[in-house]
């Protein structure tokens, strides 16, 4: 359409003044085109309005800044930076109660947790797992020397063990205590690797109990390595290892248990089922060391209980098959 008009304009050649007038007229009124329906095209109009708005805004800014100068005296450079610093993000004050965060527990209930206490718990749990592994991978005398140097490590180990026990549905210790409670005659009982000496606590009045462990956590406990007991030959009627066959020198522990037992005395072992490489070979090995098996049973899915009786004959001092795997705890 535009093209056509240009063409039309070009037909007015030869009359420049007229032509100029016509062109101007057309440019000004072209959009009306005689019909007056279309709006005028003014491409410069918006530009002009934008410029005017900018100018007005700039003027307003100047006015405002003059106002603020009157209200607040202009700060020196030093004061300005000080002010800026003050305006920076406020440091949060440490509040112990604020350290608590809400979390969902395994049951989906909302519980409050303290992240610092939680981190400490995780560190202690890691240390417990490390100490537990150490006990399964060194000899009894090495463990004894280690804890003699570091008593706090032993306390941490015992706290960790007690935490684990709380999660178990049962404990072979209960079975042993029941068995001792049912014994009519007073027995001389040695609890080797006794921990907190729970057996002495439970049946200490009925029987004569001696409780041995690497470190004495209370007055009932005698501190020693159970491969070197401070006790006479044949002085015990019953020797108990409840979850305590931990060192790598199992032969020494069994040999020492036999030394302190009287002939006919009972060796009782409560252990974690998953530790056994072969239960049959384990029993055969103990038999060869001068015992006979009188009872052997699965207590629960987790624990086995064995009763042996001391006999006179020792077939082999270090028979094949006396092996137990370490009992390691999973990271949670
Ligand atoms: N008998 C207790 C504790 C079991 S934990 C109970 O059933 O609850 C194992 C215990 O054996 C630990 O207290 C550990 O210190 C102890 N122990 C491991 N090796 C030992 C050793 N060579 N001499 C003495 N105690 C030992």
From TrEMBL:
Please explain the role this protein plays, according to its UniProt record.
Probable methyltransferase required to silence rDNA.
Q: What is its main location?
A: nucleus
- Look up the EC number in the record and give it: 2.1.1.-
Region entry Disordered, spans: 1-109
As given in the record, the signal peptide range reads none
Q: Per the UniProt entry, what species is this protein from, by scientific name?
A: Caenorhabditis briggsae
Q: Where is the composition biased (Basic residues)?
A: 38-53, 82-94
- What name goes with this protein? Ribosomal RNA-processing protein 8
Enzyme superclass (EC): transferase
CDD domains in UniProt: AdoMet_MTases
């Amino acid at each position: 359409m535009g093209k056509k008009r240009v063409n039309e304009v070009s037909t007015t050649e030869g009359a420049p003044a007229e032509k100029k007038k016509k062109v101007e007229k057309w440019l000004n009124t072209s959009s009306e085109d005689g019909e007056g329906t279309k709006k005028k095209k003014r491409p410069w109009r918006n530009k002009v309005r934008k410029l005017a708005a900018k100018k007005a805004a700039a003027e307003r800014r100047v006015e405002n800044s003059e106002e603020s100068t009157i209200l607040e005296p202009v700060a020196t450079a030093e004061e300005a930076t000080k002010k800026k610093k003050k305006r920076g993000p406020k440091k949060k004050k440490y509040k112990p109660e604020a350290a608590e965060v809400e979390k969902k527990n395994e049951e989906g209930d909302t519980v409050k947790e303290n992240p610092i206490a939680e981190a400490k718990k995780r560190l202690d749990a890691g240390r417990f797992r490390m100490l537990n592994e150490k006990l399964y991978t060194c000899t009894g005398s090495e463990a004894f020397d280690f804890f003699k140097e570091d008593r706090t490590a032993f306390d941490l180990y015992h706290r960790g063990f007690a935490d684990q026990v709380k999660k178990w549905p049962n404990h072979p210790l209960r079975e042993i205590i029941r068995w001792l409670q049912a014994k009519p005659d007073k027995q001389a009982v040695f609890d080797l690797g006794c921990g907190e000496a729970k057996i002495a606590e439970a049946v200490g009045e009925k029987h004569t109990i001696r409780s041995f462990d690497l470190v004495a956590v209370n007055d009932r406990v005698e501190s020693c390595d159970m491969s070197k007991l401070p006790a006479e030959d044949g002085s015990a009627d019953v020797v108990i290892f409840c979850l305590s066959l931990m060192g790598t020198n199992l032969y020494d522990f069994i040999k020492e248990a036999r030394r302190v037992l009287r002939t006919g005395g009972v060796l009782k072992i409560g252990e974690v089922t998953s530790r056994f490489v072969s239960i049959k070979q384990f029993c055969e090995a103990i038999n060869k060391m001068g015992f006979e098996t009188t009872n052997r049973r699965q207590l629960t899915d987790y624990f086995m209980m064995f009763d042996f009786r001391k006999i006179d004959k020792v077939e082999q001092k270090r028979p094949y098959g006396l092996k137990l795997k370490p009992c390691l705890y999973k990271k949670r």
